[in-house]
Amino acid sequence: EDQVTQSPEALRLQEGESSSLNCSYTVSGLRGLFWYRQDPGKGPEFLFTLYSAGEEKEKERLKATLTKKESFLHITAPKPEDSATYLCAVQAAGKGGGNKLTFGTGTQLKVEL
Amino acid sequence: GAVVSQHPSWVICKSGTSVKIECRSLDFQATTMFWYRQFPKQSLMLMATSNEGSKATYEQGVEKDKFLINHASLTLSTLTVTSAHPEDSSFYICSASPPGWNEQFFGPGTRLTVL
After folding, report:
1. B105 within 8 A of A36, measured Cβ to Cβ
2. Å from B107 to nearest chain A CA?
3. pLDDT confidence of A96, banded at 50, 70, 90?
4. Mean pLDDT across the stretch B61-80?
């Protein structure tokens, strides 16, 4: 069974204080690993897809990296508007479920002034 | 591009009634859509995969007779919660992928409250 574990559950940062969120996964053949941002009361917003170990993607203050066992979402010099829950999900290769995703429980990030 | 909408954004109903939630892909066609449920402080749990023109595939533990899914066109899937009870109160979110994409794009969600 595919599993995704995210840590920490919650993270409080000061504005400008860089940090990293972790996503550990076990999957029988990784098709892709996805990062989403979710604001309260809204649907997840797509951020990144990573396909193979060593791959990195960047968008503004966010950078996602991937190894064979985990992914990190690095947040550089965060701002209050980066406050949200960040979700990690994996998609297994070769299964009949097509694009089915398995989500972690997320990291709730709060960035304070 | 890749915009998904849901309607309604929130609904309150009495116990025992049925509620229908619509999910539309606005700028692409989707042969497959997904329905998730999210309880407070928890992550998204996949309920079912909706397939255009055929029966939906339900995840283990999800009652197919309670959560009816109809995917009648390439841009519309509906989820009907039948005989809703307070324990069905939750945040329901749909998603879809443009043809050939692995990424899923999510709708804004529907908050269901059953009194």
Report:
1. no
2. 6
3. low
4. 94
B108 token code pair? 């804004």
Write out chain B residues lying below 8 Å of A101, CB-based: 34, 44, 46, 104
DSSP string, chain A: --EEEEE-SEEEEETT--EEEEEEEE-SSEEEEEEEEE-TTS--EEEEEE-STT-EEEETTEEEEE-SSEEEEEE-S--GGG-EEEEEEEEETT-TTTT--EE---EEEEEE-
The gap from C-alpha A112 to its chain's centroid, in whole angstroms, comes to: 21
With an 8 Å Cβ cutoff, are B106 and A99 in contact? Answer: no
Residue appearing with tokens 């990030």: A109
Two tokens at B11?
């609904």
Residue window 18-77, chain A: list those with CB within 8 Å of chain B: 31-32, 34, 36, 41-46, 49
Mean pLDDT for the stretch of residues A54-60 = 97
Confidence at B63, pLDDT banded by 50, 70, 90: very high
Gap between the Cα atoms of A96 and A92, Å rounded: 10
Residues in chain A: 113
